[in-house]
Specification:
Length: 109
């Protein structure tokens, strides 16, 4: 049975934060649009929420990349996570990482 190891929190926590914050903002940004236009169909409401979330994330990432790096705080964390190879982090790669390497054409470490 493979050994379970915790993820490197230096990259894991920021990646989770930078995923969840845009989802929450997208929900709250979509709510007034749904209310103002009287949208009641769940699929339309979901679509508006997804569009608002994607738009918010895209605009913040573009601002962070090209205009103002601290704009990353608008998605919950000032900078993008930095990922390290499992061998550099002192973690034994899991069998799943072997599958990814085969699919992507990467070699063994």
């Amino acid at each position: 049975m493979p050994e379970f190891t915790l993820p490197d929190l230096r990259s894991f926590a920021p990646s989770v934060i930078r995923t969840v914050v845009p989802l929450v903002v997208g929900y709250f940004a979509a709510t007034p649009i749904v209310t103002v236009f009287g949208l009641s169909d769940e699929s339309v409401t979901s679509l508006v929420t997804v569009v608002m979330t994607a738009l918010y994330y895209l605009l913040v990432r573009l601002a962070e990349q090209y205009i103002l790096p601290p704009a990353g705080w608008l998605i919950g964390y000032a900078s993008a996570p930095v990922y390290v190879a499992p061998s550099q982090a002192g973690v034994t790669p899991s069998p799943a990482s072997d599958v990814v390497r085969v699919i992507t054409g990467g070699g063994r470490e």
